Amino acid sequence: MTTPVLKTERLTLRPLSMADASRIARFTADPEVAAMISDAALPTLKISAEGRILIHQGRAGLGLEHLFAIDLPNEGLIGEAAAARDGRNGVEIGYWLGKPFWGQGYGEEAAKAVTGFAQSLRPHKVRAVCAVDNRASRRVLEKAGFAPTGERLQRYSLARRESVACLAFELR
């Protein structure tokens, strides 16, 4: 299955393209943004964003993960969203936004859109994980219909250069 285009009231979620690399690098170069994304390394360079996009495009035919650019009209890419099979008949969603777009409801809107797409894949469960110290993401997940499972896990953060305590969530 190819990654579709999803529309919300204010956003378009579309497949990532190489043209997105500069904006991804710009937003993820902010340590506060990168610290909340497990695969964002600091410093963030355009070439690293390009490499990540190429790897994703090369694996797209497997249908295991769908990576979306979150576009705001007249602005362009403001973040990313993803839905990836977890190997246990489940799908895990994730998202991030550039700092200038925090606190405006875009995270909730994107999370709901990618969750709806994840459900269309007919998984046993739709899950999400966020760092314990990411209170804003926890609120977004709860508004998008997720509830904490009580499971705590560790995820390695390239930006932080360490394993980070995380909380698991599941769609109600």
Description:
- This protein is of the alpha+beta class and 172 residues long.
- The chain has one domain: 3-Layer(aba) Sandwich (Aminopeptidase), CATH 3.40.630.30.
- The protein is built from five helices and eight strands, in the order ββαααβββαβαββ.
- It has helices at 21-28, 31-34, 46-59, 106-120, 135-143, and strands at 6-7, 12-15, 65-72, 76-85, 90-97, 125-131, 146-157, 162-171.
- An eight-stranded mixed beta sheet has the order 1-2-3-4-5-6-8-7, with helices on both faces.
- Helix 1 (21-28) packs across helix 3.
- The longest helix has 15 residues, at 106-120.
- The radius of gyration is 15 Å and the shape is globular.
In short:
By secondary structure, the protein is α+β, with helices and mostly antiparallel strands.
Question: How is the topology of this model organized?
Answer:
Elements: E1 6-7, E2 12-15, H1 21-28, H2 31-34, H3 46-59, E3 65-72, E4 76-85, E5 90-97, H4 106-120, E6 125-131, H5 135-143, E7 146-157, E8 162-171
Parallel strand pairs: 5-6
Antiparallel strand pairs: 1-2, 2-3, 3-4, 4-5, 6-8, 7-8
Name the strands of the widest sheet in spatial order: 1-2-3-4-5-6-8-7
* Count of individual domains: 1
CATH topology: Aminopeptidase
CATH class type = Alpha Beta
Biggest β-sheet: count, sense, barrel? Answer: 8 strands, mixed
Arithmetic mean pLDDT: 94
**SSE string:** EEHHHEEEHEHEE
> Strand content of the residues, in percent?
35-45%
Shape-level CATH architecture: 3-Layer(aba) Sandwich
Alpha-beta content class: alpha+beta
Q: Percentage of helical residues?
A: 25-40%
